[in-house]
Structure formats: structure tokens, C-alpha cells
Amino acid sequence: MVIDNMLLLENAAIRSMSDVLCKQYKTDILEGSILIKDGKILEVSPNIELPQSADCMKIDVNHHLVMPGLIESHCHMGITEEKKGQEGDDCNETVHPITPMLRAIDAINTMDAAFADAVRAGITSANIGPGSANVVGGQFAVVKTSGRRIDDLILKFPSAMKVAFGENPKVNYAGMNTSPVTRMAIAGMLRNELVSARQYLQKSEWENEDFSLHYEAWRPVFEKKIPLKAHVHRVDDIFTAIRIAKEFDLKMTLDHCSEGHLIAQEIAASGFPAIVGPDLATRNKIEVQNVAFKTAGILAQAGVIVSVTTDHPVSLIQSLPLCVGLCVKQGLSMEDGFKALTINAAKICGISERVGSLEPGKDADIAIFDDNPMKIFTRTLMTLIDGKIVYRDAAVSDVDCGKIVIV
Q: Going by DSSP bridges, is the β-strand pair 388-392/380-385 parallel, antiparallel, or unpaired?
């Protein structure tokens, strides 16, 4: 029996983030091996024996930590490019407050240096989309972090519809002699848009004389295939977002959620998950005066599904594990920290059937670290996406007789 296109990670300290495997082997850290075939995980086990005839590359992990590739659940990487000023800034279409038809995939530049930084940090997926200048900003996309052609990197598109409450839309349209300039107008304009979109989508095909790309963009939202991605910082904005999502019976994520720790029980009761951050940034706006690393832990303790965001480039993408580590320092449990970086982020982004844990059938998106990635001195030794090595540290040897050894 010859097994082609195989990769075996052996002698690994595996943090699978899989409830099934943790229950099966009665441990969070499994000493063992991971077998990969054609970019997918084939087996995770304490001991994997291959036939002598198997054609298989092997990586001796040397008991370092192997875990799912990290996931950034909200950022603007490749849309707001580093070092390129206005020429590389495609984040906000600041001439009309309602733009649901805009698609992140039409503006993501994979040549942005942030993609390489993400890979070096062990980040294998990122949820990328428009900014928060508009009441409705457009469609997000979850993409893999290594490659040139954005169409080849898409993990899920669309992944969310961006909506924004509070300071950003108010400030952007102030002085333009057009709405919104108040929080009332933001909520009113969003409701009006949702009503119009629902009316359009409820019409049968023969009743809709004119196809509307504008309103078609709302179809996956009303079909509950993707959530509203609500930019909310203040308590009142969080409650308004929850109120509107409940009115229209829509899924939603609470992004930033800076004052979420003040209303943790109410957020938990809403059932909506939170993407917390960026906390590693200045309090440069009125509505972020209460931003704190303790927010993630308080929300998680209340029962909210939590992930953490850098909001790159507000904080740099490679600081993601450090941001989670600072949340752990301020009360988030270590286990919830690992979840925030992996399976929780995957669930929130709607991609947990593909990534977020190391289980048979899932994409072989894997990060290997020399210690807990939430520690500041921890190095990423190797990053794999779809079973291919896309980054390796100097501590990783060259291939020798079909085997790579991490020292």
C-alpha cells in the first residue's frame, strides 16, 4: 500500500481544541502524531504507524506545542494597507452611508506586508472587511493568510454584513448636510434599510422586475447564513444593536464590545457572541474610554462566546496572541484564551466545520510554537496552511531523507 501526498507530524504536544478528542483521550495536551493527506487532517492519535511502503514526509516536532492555526475574527488587513497612505486605503466608502453591495474581496491586497506578519505569528485565517464609517459598510470575507490570488484564499464569502453604530458614522457624515449625525438616525436608517431589503427579498421572482445587487447582498443575512457584524463600543450602542437584531430576527456578532463588561449578563442573555478589542490601542475616541483587557474574561465568565481582535491596523495583526495573553492576565481563563484564538473565533466567523480545531476531515491549518503563544517570548516554529509549510523558523532543519527535525 502506497500512500501519496502525506505529511506526518510526530512527537508533538497536541492541543487539539477538539471536545471529542479531549474526551476520547482524557487530556487537553495529547502527546502524539497528526497525519495529513491532501491538505486535510486524516488522523490525530497518540501513535500512528504507517506502512513501510508509505510515501510520506515526516516532521519531528520534538515535543513542541502543535495547535490549530490562529484566527483573527475582525480586521482590515489588505484593505487598509501598511505604508501606502490614501493610495492603499480602501476601507471606507465615505460618500454614502448605506453600501451593502460592497465586497471585501474586491479590495483585499494579498501583497500587503501584514499577510506575511500574520503567517509568522501562526495566524492562518482572518475575517476581513470594510470599516465603520458607514451605517452599512458591506460584506466581510474569511480568507487564508498565504497566497497571491484572493479568489484562491477564500474560506467563506460572504462571512458577515458590516453595520456600525455610534461615533464613527456620526463623525464621518457631520458637516455633509446629510444623515446620519445622531444615533437616532443611525438606528433609523438601518431599520429602514432592513425593511426595504426584507420587502425586496419576500417578493417572488416574477414580482421583482428589477434585479438589485444592493438588496441581493442582504439575502444571506435574512437567510441566517451570515450575521450582522455590528461595530459597537458603548453600552447604549450595544443595546441598540441587540434591539434591532431581535426586531428583525437576525444573527449578529458584537464587535469591539468595549463596554461589554458593564452589561455582561445582558449580553449573555441576548445569545450574541462578542469579538473584543482592540485593547492594545490608545483611547483615542470618546466611546472607547472604558476599553480594558478585563472585558473578555468578564464576558466569558458570564457565558458569552468570546474571541479577540487586533482590528489591524489599529493594533498590528501579529499582536493577536499577545492581546489574548493580556486578557488572560486580566481574568480570562487560559483555556478560554486558547479558545478565543481558535475554536471560538471559528464558530463566531462561521467556519468551524473547516478550521479552529485539529480533527479528522478539517483543513490542515496548523501552528507549531516553542511555548504558549500568549507569552511574549514564544516563537512560531512553523505554520502550515492546507498541509503546506508556509513559514518555518531558523530552528527548523532542512529536509533530510524525507524528514524535517525541529530542534
A: antiparallel
